[in-house]
């Protein structure tokens, strides 16, 4: 099981952009040495596919049409809906941050923690954080996401994280390992904080673990450029398309 988990980041990298379109282009160029027309067609298709998934407009379409949609949570609904705690999911760690002299949460994890802290201030609800060392963690990472988040929550938001899972390696383990920690305090109804594109699979995992989940998504993939710029390749567009396609594939696997 562990070995299979360690392969997940490698397999994901190969089947997702930019690797997949580049491999298709390479295959086309190799095929062109024997069947020129078919080979060039595959190569052009690979380049065209890479262009498209690098466009922010395509990322927005993918986000809105391939994944289940969750509306932003309102503070009023959290207060009146019987939610007992806020659960923030990890999103990675920068194990070496020379400017700080210590490990820092990744931008994705920091955004989730910030939103969770904001919801906690608005609702008065306690906060749990789930994140250990992911399957793709480097040897340089010596602290879990939970340990880093504990420090950052206190330093940046004067927030004490009441529960921390610092052992989980993926979303399914986030849910299964956090469950007994919250169950000790009778916590079953939670507000789940993660990126909008990550929410469908996260809700599925936490409901399977026995939680009653109110989705509190953040960082939606929305149009951010004008006109032609939405259709020009960019690193932001590629990153957005990649995470959506990754979630779409992972959601299909999780449901089987």
Structure explained in plain terms:
This protein has 256 residues and is of the alpha/beta class. It has two domains: 2-67 and 231-254, no CATH class; 75-218, Rossmann fold (3-Layer(aba) Sandwich), CATH 3.40.50.620. Helix content is 52%, strand content 12%. It contains ten helices and seven strands. It has helices at 2-15, 19-31, 36-53, 56-65, 75-80, 107-123, 145-157, 171-183, 199-208, 235-254; strands at 85-89, 93-94, 104-105, 127-130, 163-165, 189-195, 212-218. The strands form two sheets. It has a five-stranded parallel sheet, with helices on both faces. Strands 2-3 form a two-stranded antiparallel sheet. The two termini are 17 Å apart. The model has no long low-confidence stretch (mean pLDDT 93).
Q: How confident is the prediction overall: mean pLDDT?
A: 93
Bulk shape: elongated
In CATH, the architecture of the largest domain is: 3-Layer(aba) Sandwich
Series of H and E elements: HHHHHEEEHEHEHEHEH
Number of discrete domains: 2
Q: Return the CATH topology of the largest domain.
A: Rossmann fold
CATH structural class of the largest domain: Alpha Beta
Question: What would you call the structural class?
Answer: alpha/beta
Strand content: 5-15%
The largest sheet has its strands arranged as 5-4-1-6-7
Extract low-pLDDT stretches: none
The radius of gyration is 20 Å
Count of β-strands: 7
Enumerate how many helices there are, as a single number.
Answer: 10
Helical content, roughly? 40-55%
